[in-house]
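Study this pair:
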Amino acid sequence: MALCKIQIIGNLGRDPELRYTPNGRPVATFSVAVNQATKNQQTGEWIEATDWFRVSVWGDRAERAAENLRKGSRVFVDGRFRTREYETNDGRKGMSLDVSADNVMGLDKRDQEGGFSGAPGGSAGAGPSGGAAGGPPSGGGYDDTEIDELPF
């Protein structure tokens, strides 16, 4: 048995795109930007890097994500991870970081106050919200000011 799970927190790069399979099953796709900063050991300068993940979510969660998330929304995504190679029209090769989401949770204040209607704790995922997937607890347990004031 193999397991390739990923959990990310980032911002949507575009509004979710909701489509339906020929069988009528909803699927929403969107991109999530995850910013990371590392310190250059030689210069002491902070270097920012952005990783982009292509996320797909299925079923009722897809419809809730499409209704409640917008470009710029801060989200927690928990799911299965895989890489996919592709070739551009001009012949360059690229790598796509794809996530098939089991759980999507809006982290913006508006999402914590009732986004994803019908899902416990503002979650677009199945099962209990919060700690079950290793994400933030429901009810807005995190204060954005704490995140902005990290000591490093």
Observations:
- The chain has a mean pLDDT of 78.
- The CA atoms of residues 29 and 138 lie 24 Å apart.
- The domain at 5-148 is CATH 2.40.50.140 (OB fold (Dihydrolipoamide Acetyltransferase, E2P)).
